[in-house]
Amino acid sequence: MKKFALALSVLASISSPAMAEGNAEAGKTKAIVCSACHGVDGNSMIDMYPKLAGQQATYLEKQLHDFRSAAQTGGKEGRNDPIMGGMAMMLDDQGIKDVAAFYASQTQTQVEVTDIPELGEQLYMSGDVARGITACIACHGPQGAGSELAGFPAIGGQHANYLTIQLNKFRDTSRNNDLNGMMQDIAGKLTTEDTAALSKYISSLK
């Protein structure tokens, strides 16, 4: 909770300078190589890969910069992923903005999720005070839309399997590019049952 409060205070004190915007039309062309995993419009049909359609452009930019940084430093910085590192290395800064703008301009497809675990809803909406687990709604909102200003991504409607994979990576710290380690801290307190239930609930959000 202290990390969450600190992050918000820092973000509130920063005024972002004007930056060049991405060109979604140019990004559509540059993103063709991404379609095998993420779909032509950013709606991946393979549940181990994320849906990028409708995701915040600034979040997508950060992830691409982090993938590229990891590839350039042998995994010492950024977000290490052998496939995405290679893809990000092919993009310059403007290319990253263009690809992010394209995916942000697309609409996420929705899939009906049944048998939603009550545990998942409980953790998302209320967390678990006894275990020090902050409610997901605090950062990602009631429908999982996140907050672009604060850097919290949209997660509602995402593939449950992808969410589970990422929570597990945060838990074992193989993914560590989260703000102030907030996701690592929370995921480290989740059980395997918690993670599965939470992922399925988030996937059901519209």
From TrEMBL:
It is found in: Periplasm. Residues 22-107, 115-206 form the Cytochrome c domain. GO terms for molecular function: electron transfer activity; heme binding; iron ion binding. Gene3D superfamilies: Cytochrome c-like domain. Binds 2 heme c groups covalently per subunit. Residues 1-20 form the signal peptide. Heme c 1 binds at residues 34, 37-38, 84. It comes from the Bacteria. InterPro entries: Cyt_c-like_dom, Cyt_c-like_dom_sf, Cytochrome_c4-like, Cytochrome_c_Oxidase_Subunit. Pfam families: Cytochrom_C (PF00034). The keyword Heme applies. Keywords: Electron transport, Heme, Iron, Metal-binding, Periplasm, Signal, Transport. The keyword Transcription regulation does not apply. Heme c 2 binds at residues 136, 139-140, 183. GO terms for cellular component: periplasmic space. This is Cytochrome c4.
